[in-house]
Amino acid sequence: MDSTPPPPSPSAFDLVSRALGRYIPQGGAAAPDAQSDRATRRQAPDQSAAGRQEQILGAVNLDRDLIITRCNMAAPVFAGLDAGAGRPFVDLLPPGDVPTVTRRLRQVVESGEAHVARIQRLRREDGSELVVSMSILPSAAPEGGLTVSVIAMARRLHLYAAETAIGTSLDIGETAQSLAESLLAWGDVAAVDLDFAVWTGEGVSAGARGRIRLRRAALVPDRVWPEGYTTAGDDLPGDASRLLAQAVLRDDAPQTLVIPGGEAVERVFGSPRVARALVPGDRSAGVACIPLVLDSAPPVVLGVAEVWRRADCPFRDSELFDLQELVARTAHHVDLARQHQREHTQVLALQRRLLPRAGGDTIEIASVYQPATPDSAGVGGDWVNSFPLPDGRTALVVGDVVGHGLGAAATMGQLSMEARALLSAGLAPDQVLEHLDETVTLLDDAESGLAAGYSALGSTCCIALYDPVSHHMTLSSAGHLPPILVSPDGHAGPLAIRPHPGLGAEFALREPFDVYTFGVPPGSVLALYTDGLVEDPALSIDEGMDRLADAVATVHPWDTLQQAVRHVVSALAPRPQRDDVTLLLARMIGYRKEDTATWRLPARDDAPARARVQVAALLAQWRIRDDTRHDALLLVSELVTNAVRYATGPVTVRLIRAGHGLLCEVGDTGNGRPRLRRAGLLDDGGRGLSIVHRLTTRWGVRWTDTGKVVWAEVSR
Fold first, then answer.
1. What global pTM score does this model have?
2. pLDDT tens, 611-625?
3. Which single residue of 362, 420, 611, 697 has CA 20 to 30 Å from 508?
């Protein structure tokens, strides 16, 4: 058996170094930088192949303290860069870039994740600067350091790389930051100021320029700025916003404005306050202001990009052309980010509108919704909701719509509102899920024109109804993970429910939605959640649910649920978060026994009279005032009379003292729905529900396994 150890894997530094020969032209000719661009154009024909070489690759190896250990930058374009072994790498950077680049280097050391292709400037010994594309690669063990590869960039390659970097994100802040970092190659300070309407995702138009309000979206490099200077996230003073808007919109056409030096800056800005807000410390600096213009008719200015540099280095015409070209190329990325921001705002507004507001006298509610990413493309269709039903029960609903973005959010809103309407109409949880199943199927029907390229098939939903009188929970689930129930004695675990295919399943796979009933005595806590909270690549789904059960079991009876739900999410949410996380905790309170009473009466002609006697005695015991007592007795008499007349079997009467009202319920075995109608002058019947309607603040019907319950509420 051969015990010879395998050869060590080449380091990142070795791999980059081996590639140098493929990128350095024969004869050592260097890629033209910005200072030698004109000389390159005058090359002889036989040297044109080398002169067209637009990138030169170099490599520097660093230890964990960011000290150079090895260097391979022999190409002529790197002449003047003092990258000798033993020197700190930050000595190659302009002073203003040191904090930002150092932070990136240390992030790669700690995380082991590469940082690829960012525009950066390196400082030569003579004070000139070289623009490079810099990548930071982690070195393999046992070195444990870094390899920094750099590509010296010519003008066209710089523009291409900058545009590519700017277009990688749909977040408006990141897009502005990428643009500012790319502009820094032409100056010492770069800033991007956007119209406030662009920042918030609103629409912009050419007619709004007189009321323009600018917000600083990005500022580089990262350093300590003088007091009064506008930094990222701040609004520019009104005078400064108007000044920049007027400067770049001369003659009603967007134009680049160049102010060469300190005296001109003071003369143009005029107000010391405006100068403090716009000038980055050095009054002798000059600035180029380039409008971010959306190509339309008429053109729309989205904002202004500013590049500041020392007064002794004025902007050349070729540099201004490059700046205008870069900003023009990337303006559409800013507008795409604006549109994405608007969609993101709409999606989150819809998500948060569906979150439960509060509980009530019989139940305490708290919830958390945490999107996976800050952009709307990552916002999914998770929703959780709770609302009181007219008959005194409370509905708890959680769902997860397939997909992300505006399509998923729109479907989520439709299903949530439909579930609420059907539950408020008295339908049972399984009946509501049948309607939602049909809705999802209809939305996926391409012929109906409702799909719009989006499918919600496979979405899940769980509905639970809490009865505060019987202290029972009725539940149905369509493919959703089972809720976690914590009993008052501290025992916690998922409810035993049979899995279901979910909403919109194929006809052959459809199964009836089961209905489960669980006892939930006062003090019980129910947890409804989506899979983003318990799914972790390192754990099975059962282990994730067990962790959730253990976390919810630690919620003390007198802990506030809002603090508890945040603590559970922060402790269990996977890192990094790959899906939306939603959690609702509900603590059952219910009614006291002395606030409810139930009677079961045979369906005979004397049932209304017997019900009046029982109810009158109870209302006297509760000390209900006379007018309310009279209304309640008449209400119970009418409801029991209708139950005896139109149904068979025993009649159940239940009275609940709830808040500022009395809730009267009469149940029977009939399946006909009572309807309010106008009775004719000579009709013998039809007036009972009219009397009920006039006596109550609200009334309705809910369906049960054995029949129906007609409920009505009177104020007390």
1. 0.57
2. 999 999 998 888 888
3. 420
